[in-house]
Amino acid sequence: MSIPAISQWLEASWLGLTIRQSALLFNGLVALHTLGIILVAGTIWLVDLRLLGFGLRREPVSAVLRQILPWTWSGFALMFVSGSLLFCAEAVMVSGSIAFRIKLVLILLAGLNALIFHKTVYRGAPEWDLTLATPPRARLAGALSLTFWVCVIGAGRAIAYEVYK
Amino acid sequence: MNVFSLFQLLDHTALGEALRNNRVLFPLISSIHLLGLALLVGTILVVDVGLLGAGMRSQPVSRVATQLKPLTWTGLAVMLITGPMLLTGEAIRMYCNWLFWIKLGFVALAISFYFTVRRNAIADGSSLSPTKAKSVGIVSLALWVCAVVAAKSINAFMQ
Asked: Among A35, A71, A158, whose Cβ lies nearest the Cβ of B27?
């Protein structure tokens, strides 16, 4: 089954129709999606900035990660569920949007960057947990994560203007 | 000069003209506005959930708040600059939309709360009662969530 066919099927489904036909439901989901991205970006940036030596500089890197990341994940769940539902409502238009495809790739890259950080340089965190002089690879991971999420927000905004104008 | 003529003036600025004629400018500034929002509300939220006894709980709330203040203020500055810029692109349309005024009301309340009750509560530190800390955290979170929900609803009721 091709992407256009799946998109058409999603839009015509009960779920897609229900969301599209209710202004309250649709805009409620848009608001939840915005709150989700605020939670994801706003919290992950605090981790990224700590790796770069800004923000929560007086706290150990591990303390910031351990206490902040659960909120990032909650935001991601909110963003993902509301985003998937919104996609069902407008699957044909959104799946054809270049900005949407770029946004998905950026989210994937952000996830990959976080995974690599956790599996490699973060393993040695006990050695640099308290210092502001984090290793170059940790700084690179922080800078990349910061940039990816800035771009995700930009691409997300671009979808709205590409699709509706 | 009344509010309506002020909005008319905004609508007629060169920036307003540019925002309406350029396809990229509006989404670009709108993205920066959202980046500022994520920084502002993200940092405020971490302190608010701290007041509720969650999040950064292994350190005092005031200590976390002190370190996050420059980031919160940066986010606020970005919003206060990009917000009026975006307004010039559709000032009259916004003037006629009641949800825009509701949003502005919540933003004004949330910012006032941040600089008064919330700041005093955080300054009280360990002498702050858990009940008061929780109430301040909940009110702050609720005001910002209402501001965001009202902002996102503006387009739904746009004529």
From this structure: A158
What is the three-class DSSP state of A134? coil
Helix axes A23-51, B130-153, angle to 10 degrees: 120
3 state DSSP class of A2: coil
User: The whole model's pTM is what?
Assistant: 0.94
| pLDDT score of A79 more than 60 | yes
Residue A17 to residue B54: CA distance in whole angstroms? 39
Q: How far apart are CA A112 and CA A118, in angstroms?
A: 10
The number of distinct structural domains making up chain B is 1
Structure tokens that stand for B98 in this block: 């009641």
The yes-or-no verdict on residue A49 having pLDDT over 70 is yes
Average pLDDT over residues A77-104: 95
Here the ipTM equals: 0.93
Residue A1's pLDDT band, with cuts at 50, 70 and 90, is confident
Q: Which of B57, B63, B148 sits opposite A35 (nearest CB)?
A: B148
Write out the residues of chain A at the interface with chain B, using a CB-CB cutoff of 8 A.
23, 26-27, 30-31, 34-35, 37-39, 41-43, 45-46, 49, 54-59, 63-64, 67-68, 71, 150, 153-154, 156-158, 160-161, 165
Task: Name every chain A residue with its beta carbon within 8 A of the beta carbon of B149.
Answer: 31, 35
Which amino acid, one-letter code, is at A106? L
d(CA B152, CA A28): 9
* DSSP letter, residue A90: T
- 8 Å CB contact of B56 and A68: yes
B100, B94 Cβ separation under 8 angstroms: yes
Q: Which residues of chain B have pLDDT under 50?
A: none
Find, among A6, A149, A13, the residue nearest to B39 by Cα: A149
Q: State the residue range of the domain holding B93.
A: 3-157
Q: Which amino acid is at A37?
A: I
Q: Assess whether pLDDT exceeds 70 at residue A164.
A: no
pLDDT band at A48; cut points 50, 70, 90 = very high
